[in-house]
Amino acid sequence: MWRLLLLLLPLTELPSHAHYTSSDVVYHPLPHFWTGVGFCPAGDINYNGISAALEAPSMQLHLRLIGALPIGAITHIRIHWLLELVQFLEYSTEGVPQYDYEKFDRFVDLLQELHLSPVLEFMANPGDVFTANPERNWFLWENFVKSIINHQLARHGATRLSSWRYETWNEPDLLNYNRINFTSASYLEYVQAVRRGLSKAGGRRKSKQLYRALRGPAGLFKSEQRHPLCWELLEVCNQQLAKCPIDILSYHRKGLDGSAQEILNGSLALLTKIYHDYPQLQQLPVANDEADPVAGWDTPRDFQSDVRYAATLIATVMQHWQAKLEGGVLAKLESLSHDNAFLSYHPYEFSQRTLLAHFRMNETSPPHSQFVQKPVYAALGMLAKLGTRAANLEVVNMDSKHSVQVLRSISGNGAAQYMATIFLSPEQAGPQLTAYHHKYTLNMSIANESAFITELLVPHSTDPAHVWQQAGSPAYPNATLREAMRRAQTPRLYETGPIWQYNSELVVNSAHLPLPWLMLLRVCSAAWPKLKRPQQLEIVEVTKSEVFIRWSEQARSTQCLKSYEVWFRERAGSDWLHISQGWHLPYPSFQYAPGGNNSVNGFYKVRGVDVFDERSAFSQIVEYLEL
Prior knowledge:
alpha+beta; Immunoglobulin-like; nine-stranded antiparallel sheet; eight-stranded parallel beta barrel; hydrolase; L-iduronidase activity; signal; FN3_dom
């Protein structure tokens, strides 16, 4: 049995200025810089191929699940070849390409519905426009970029587009990406044309506040001989930074051995070289678009199935935060993105680098897809609960070989009204048991009455891959096994009841916790904003008599959420049934498969429960009718 013992002592008030101090702990503004994911669609790289991949029901459900993490967990999604959804129609009499945006618009609308902002990589060749007219690319790229942005400004408005990200062609030095045969001269011409297109879009509606920053060159930055395009762009920018077409220096650095430290070391080494050779670039923010533990998303690796990958991702965030605070070459780190939004395939449902395990159920008529959340998905949900200010990363020694990393964060106006702390054991150890007892002083400041909640990710208990493997790893898991996997997919809730006195001493006894483990401790003041009613309740068919239910959260109201409740009644006038009773639902979704002769047709509503066991108002009632 696991044991967590939480004890408490008196607290002090926090001063209200840029950096907040509680006893000897200093808190710094914490931008949530890790909230990007990405993937490359399967299939042919053209209008028909990319359309088929992104419009497939499996992909649409997959995206709905990605969008069903807590608010702010994932804000941006970077999809290679997304602009292949723009269809070339014809040339005007003036020789200007005319485009159809219908499929691109429809996909962008879905992302907006899911509160996901696209990262627009200007990376496409609709109708072979750019390879057919290389001598006019200086104009064609400017026109293409400007027309896309103007079209979306008319549909979504400048404020919404200001949350989008814009980037140059992905890894242009690689032959499998450089499909329009860039030379050094034509690549630099392309980047300048993209910059002009972004700058000219909007016409008179432009303002300094809505300036669209361009990222690039999104390169691997191997040797100058092997990857000349990216290095030559840096040379141009270093010579005259004021005329540099990029505003944020983006690069790709993955780990070598699956560890977070290797990802960080790669960034430190690359930026040290760049700043030595191109010192003017120290003025630009930097972003690692593909901060993954090891290259090759589709290569199966056991650690990507379970809590070890979740621990590695959280360790990556923690270590980059500390590097950013230390003011070295990562002082201007703007964002990290994880290339883990791919669709896995048989027989590697869990072991590929993905957020979700994907089961393609080919034995049903019609075939359909089932998804199970992996621990790394849950880890992103835990990170979303961090506050607006955070302390330095602490390392607490467990024994001569192991240590625990601790990241404390707070939110509140002046005094802390909310505190979230993540504890992380060694990310690549395990699964194994360790005898460890440590007394940890948090030195929190929580005003008024307070309550706390702890959630854990540990091997086996919160490990749906283990449940699947114990059942023989079937290609088509039945309804009973799917439910068992889903019951293991969320963090394990530890409730020790609300605490009505002021305390700040935490004792962690992990003698029975298998490594690696993650713990999120949240302490909430009664003065923190109360839960608001869930919004935008949606019910989507998965297969016959099975639905995926998702809803949206409202900002600042769910930091102190404990769980959601989903209610159902079959017809008006019948009793409401609490269909999620017995489930821990910390994230805004639920998959409902009642089984037997029970119907999914009827009315649904959702509400939240906070750490004080107070309920929010119910969402609007939504009726679902199976076709």
